[in-house]
Write a structure and sequence with these properties.
CATH class: Alpha Beta
Order of helices and strands: EEHEHEEHHH
Number of strands: 5
Radius of gyration: 15 Å
Distance between the termini: 31 Å
Structural class: alpha/beta
Shape: globular
Helix content: 40-55%
Strand order of the largest sheet: 1-2-3-5-4
CATH architecture: 3-Layer(aba) Sandwich
Number of helices: 5
Length: about 150
């Protein structure tokens, strides 16, 4: 079952979809507002962004099919950005997010928010392929989560 929720912003949309899994218990309008603020904070413009919440089986299929990786992950980001306008599809395995929240002893929704903004940071140009990049993106995640606490 696939379900789509549209939140429009000047003809550019942030969409939330699911594949074979129930929607997570997030406040979509508040989350969209926060995402837009983070994008603006990094001097980018919002294009079309789609979050696709899925199962471990689906994220593994996507990882195998498109990236030739044979492992589970919490997020896969497909970047369609052009210039300063960020756009992309962000596939998030809710099962892996849940497993990670238990592993790291964090609240599930907070872990989901971290993963959601991690994908946005990738679209904004931040990478985590090096130890320095990982430290930077983690600091940016913390900064974005703090911003969420301030504005909501």
């Amino acid at each position: 079952m696939t379900q789509t929720v549209y939140i429009y912003n000047y003809f550019m949309a942030i969409l939330y979809e699911t594949i074979d899994i129930s929607f997570p218990k997030i406040k979509r309008r508040e989350t969209t507002h926060w995402i837009k603020r983070v994008i603006a904070h990094h001097h980018k413009k919002q294009g079309d962004i789609t979050y696709i919440f899925c199962s471990d089986a689906e994220i593994l299929r996507i990882n195998n099919t498109y990236l030739n990786h044979d492992y589970y992950t919490d997020i896969i980001t497909f970047d369609y950005s052009e210039g300063d306008k960020i756009s992309g599809d962000l596939f998030i395995s809710l099962q892996t997010v849940k497993t990670n929240s238990e592993k790291f002893k964090t609240d599930y929704i907070k872990e989901l928010q971290r993963v959601m903004i991690h994908g946005i940071l990738h679209l904004c140009g931040f990478e985590d392929k090096t130890s320095v990049g990982k430290k930077i993106i983690r600091a940016k995640e913390d900064e974005a989560l703090e911003l969420r606490n301030l504005i909501l």
